[in-house]
Amino acid sequence: MPYTSDCPEEFGQIGNCLTAINSNHEEVEFKKDHSKVQEFIGGNAIDVALPSPVADFVRRKGGHTVITKILIAKNGIAAVKEIRSVQKWAHKTFVPGGSNNNNYANVNVIVDVAKRAGVHAVWAGWGHASENPQLPDALSAMRSLGEKISSTIVAQSAQVPTMAWSGSSLSETKTSPQGYLTVANEVYKKACVTDLGEVPGSPIFIMKLAGAARHLEVQVVAEQNGNAISLFGRDCSVQRHYQKIIEEAPVTIAHPETFKQMEKAALQPIASNFLELNPRLQIKHPTAEMVSGVNLPAAQLQIVMGIPLHQIRDIQTCKPMPKGHVVAVRITAENPEAGFKPSSGTLQELNFRSSTNVWGYFSVGTAGGLHEFTDSQFGHIFAHGADRSKSRKAMIVALKELSIRGDFRTTATRDRGL
Is the model's pTM score more than 0.90? Predict the structure, then answer.
């Protein structure tokens, strides 16, 4: 019986079946030639990995790398989300019937800890080291798409239209000995205006302002064989200090046909002005998860293990249309009456109850605290409903029931008004 999928049409034809089902409805093990993706195969390759349930899973799914340890190179709610997502997937996959159970921007420290801990992969989350192109360089992964200056130069080299910026005249790229498309340091520096010392290696560039614009994003999942799928999009236009504070999915402000063209452009960026591509998980990714049913951190993990998209169960079962609507609100330690100035201090009480339609997570608990060096965001709440109106009402109720007592200010009250 051939392999079938009911994923969106944009998924395209993945290729010939990689598994078959015998008369007993069991997957028949097969062998796959991974010669075309050698640079993506990790150190714990399937042919040298010790026997384990994970090794059996990777072999059965046609993968090439066995990962049983991950260094989470991030703190706060990013770490909480990664742990919960992978743990949920691992329990469901390997324990059937079981329950769902000093410096994060320092690349050298992260790589050193990864080596000493013997991990098979590093998960950097969002912010901190995930924004530093030195981390993927040090881990022998891609830099050219993980950093805005390099990615824009790469886009220009492919004749993709870009907004006018300080590197508009640059389009020179090169291929590394490992086969990666990269931008030489001397070309990279020409696009920079100066350096900022807040985080080592923080270059500054200038780009033309897109006035009266909406901040719309497309969630893309892609793997090393060249297959990609769009998991719809989100509207992140409500911001303060050019940082998001409220997000929602799917996009409703744009005409459906317009956003469909955006999705196609995201999968093959040849149409619009290229602004940015983030080949990392973003903090608001649960909005895409809730309308698509895809566990994104678990999908990341399986992709790194070399498993094709059409072998990932969540991708197999995703639907052509988003399920309902999600509104997400970030809870930050900021004073809205003082221009959203960061606030720090200790937390006496935090009381939040998840429900059928509302879910949230926080990086700080009772008797904890926030200091001046941490990210001001310490919580994220997501409300799901059949439509935008119902999800908005569910969020209002959740924010009214949220109780935070501490000697720092938060945006929770202002968020209710928005």
Answer: no
